[in-house]
Amino acid sequence: MRMLRITERVLFKVVSVIAQLLLVASAGAAFYQVIARFILQSPADWSEVLTRALLIWTVLLGISLAFRHGAMISVELLQNLLKHRWQRWLQHVIAVTCIGFLGFIAWIGGQMTYRVRFQNVPSLDIPISWIYLAIPVGATLAAIAVLMRWLLGADEPAPVRNDAQG
Hints:
Elements: H1 2-39, H2 45-69, H3 77-81, H4 84-115, E1 120-121, E2 126-127, H5 129-132, H6 134-152
Helix pairs in contact: 1-2, 2-6, 4-6
């Protein structure tokens, strides 16, 4: 179990670093687009597409991090109404449902990625499947995150609530 916990921490630390780097790169590409369009008066056709592609990857990698830290939006009404034993049962049902749904999304995303493997993004001259690949990769990482949170539990305290009810 200790080795699994170490592997999980390293995996999601790497995912976090990659997501942060992609976010910085997308901000840089967007900044370049603004400079090229309004200062140089020569807009680049590649920077907008690159920004969009990097943001897609950032979001789908970030979803796995949110699942691992338990920061996804939840409706707690039913959980608050149940006793402790039933709350734990509900958490199992939610984890199994999430893993199943994310597995389905990964499978569909993999099929989509395979179907578009011969199409290129004109302005970047790369296969569009590299962008579509974010779907199965992100969904698979999110399913792993749910599974690890379910098996290993939460290492960190629950996220601080930031709503009107405090």
